[in-house]
Amino acid sequence: MSMTLMKAVGLTRYLPIDREDSLMDVQVEKPAARGRDLLVRVQAISVNPVDVKVRSPKERVEAEPRVLGWDVAGIVVEAGEDATLFEPGDEVYYAGSIVRPGGNSEFHLVDERIVGRKPRSLDFAEAAALPLTTITAWESLFDRLGISREASGNEGRNLLIIGAAGGVGSIATQLAAAAGLTVIGTASRPETVRWVKELGAAHTISHREPLVPQLRQIGFDTVDYILCLNSTELHWAQMAEAIAPQGRICSIVETSEPLNLNLLKDKSATFSWELMFTRSRFGTPDMIEQHRLLNEVADRVDAGKLRTTVTKRLSPINAATLKEAHALIETGSTIGKIVIAN
């Protein structure tokens, strides 16, 4: 039986992005949908720090090209026999799974339980900017920090977002402001300060200076919640000092050194991690929550209550444009999201 091939961008060695073979245009086998999987024709993708992290130099060599990419917007072309949520022709968006091939390819296979309907008011590129950062922000705020989704439950409460202008911060700022929290976002350049305020932050401070004196200067002795999206260990002592008694801290950035959790003990403060791949990686019983939250986000976008965070568009989906996107992410100073569409 002959194998059907599709175009993809992959790697066999983990190299610096300026190397010609760091990402390559390749042909791989086109998959077929089985079980609860959907086969999606990829219309647009976006690039995240996780892509850069996975691709970063290491010794390993792949026998077959490894395809990255964890943000897709596209059209369902095939649904597995157990799929009930979508059918061919549906327009969808999602972030995929870290333990399966990524979406930088012509077609992509994904479990329907982590897929949402594409917001109708957005084009595919605008939709592709949302899933990974939105799931991360949503789970951080509502699952890990335990913030109420209703504004009435957050009266008088505040949230410090460290790294508010990036992909996750751009969504978290909007979600938290809509949930009635007073958002203090960190931003260190005039253009990022403008961006964060535009998205709903009431105040901005700089993450390049100690946080506590700046918080006091704008009238906050402590904060109820902290979402750390930038260098956990660098900000750890300041977060421990700034958090209110019985407050909660969540981070998405792993550390190279252990954190001293004793700093939180006297305040009975809570620390939790967020990784949006946890549900899909471990097939948790509540995996379908990502389907539900992406649908709710689509409704909010279509109602004009949440905006996409695209700041740069590239085209087409190939190795050259993906290398350009990876290089931009590696500068560490991107605002919002970079998307690539055909």
TrEMBL record:
It holds the Pfam family ADH_zinc_N_2. SUPFAM superfamilies: GroES-like, NAD(P)-binding Rossmann-fold domains. The keyword Electron transport does not apply. Residues 18-340 form the Enoyl reductase (ER) domain. Belongs to the zinc-containing alcohol dehydrogenase family. Quinone oxidoreductase subfamily. InterPro entries: ADH-like_N, ADH_Zn_typ-1, ER, GroES-like_sf, NAD(P)-bd_dom_sf, Zinc-ADH_QOR/CCCR. The keyword Metal-binding applies. Keywords: Metal-binding, NADP, Oxidoreductase, Zinc. This is Zinc-type alcohol dehydrogenase-like protein. The lineage of its organism: Bacteria, Bacillati, Bacillota, Bacilli, Bacillales. NCBIfam families: adh_fam_1. Gene3D superfamilies: Medium-chain alcohol dehydrogenases, catalytic domain, NAD(P)-binding Rossmann-like Domain. It comes from Paenibacillus whitsoniae. GO terms for molecular function: oxidoreductase activity; zinc ion binding.
